Amino acid sequence: MTKKLSHIVTFILLLGLAALFLAPIFIVVINSFKFKFSITDTPFVFPNAETFSGAQNYISGIQQTGFISAFFWSLFITVFSVAAIVIFTSMTAWYIVRVKTFWTNLLYYALVFSMIVPFQMVMFTMSKTANVLGLDNPLGIILIYLGFGAGLSTFMFSGFVKSVPITIEEAATIDGCNTLQTYFLVVFPVLKPTTVTVAILNTMWIWNDYLLPYLVIGNDYKTIPVAVQYLKGGYGSVDMGALMAMLVLSIIPVVIFYLTSQKYIIKGVAAGAVKG
């Protein structure tokens, strides 16, 4: 009886926490269908016949922000940045784990150290360097994201690679595979749990990132977070209805991606952080 009561209390607490975390998203969704003045007056009330704006906020927001263009730039940068992070950091982790030298150890600890350096500490020198090197464009920012995402991703992959038996790599070599064939045909498929986890974490980071695209590529290639700020008018006025609508549209893709891949997160994090 005590155990059953404990489960009920735990369930109620978790349900309350879930409601607490989901409440801001729910409030944004219901306010995206209200007129902007109604949002200020009754932000926590469902839209009614007088306050319901239909799809007006969505249409207005798309027109004001250039949302379609921003969406495709965000998609382009996110997809190729995540692909570069997954491929290059997994190969780096494999090399670091399998080739034990002073230099690989130094590289590993340098990447781990980069995780604790705040972005704000290097953002101005980084943006200037990106401008001088011609990286202030959608292709260049992919390289910058690779640099900032390398630390955590390599750390996670390294932990998982340690759990991969080296005998399967030796068997591949005996069968005639070269280094790249061994990696892509044997090692990389085994890294699937951590690969999905790294992809999810970096997708949520890059898709929602505002500061780096704003500093590096600015208004020339606006991503969604940068485009949304243009709903702010003069003297601090903000079209709250359109803003709420654009926030809803911006979170839908990453939520869908997360829900379809979330079953791998705990498995991948545990494997990358504990094994080895």
**Unreliable stretches covering 5 or more consecutive residues:** 272-276
CATH architecture: Orthogonal Bundle
Topology, number of strands: 0
Oligomeric status = single chain
Largest sheet: none
Stated plainly, the CATH topology is called MetI-like fold
Instruction: Using the coordinates above, name the CATH class.
Output: Mainly Alpha
Would you mind describing this structure in some detail?
The protein has 276 residues and is mostly helical. The protein has one domain (64-274): MetI-like fold, CATH 1.10.3720.10. It is 76% helix and 0% strand. The protein is built from 14 helices and no strands. It is globular.
Compose a concise summary of this entry.
The protein has 276 residues and is mainly alpha-helical. It is built from 14 helices and no strands. Helix 7 crosses helix 14.
Question: Key features?
Answer:
14 helices; MetI-like fold
Topology record:
Blueprint lengths: L1 H30 L4 H6 L14 H10 L1 H32 L3 H13 L4 H14 L5 H24 L4 H9 L4 H12 L1 H17 L2 H6 L7 H5 L11 H22 L3 H10 L2
Helix pairs in contact: 1-13, 3-13, 4-5, 4-7, 4-10, 5-7, 7-10, 7-14, 8-9, 10-13, 10-14
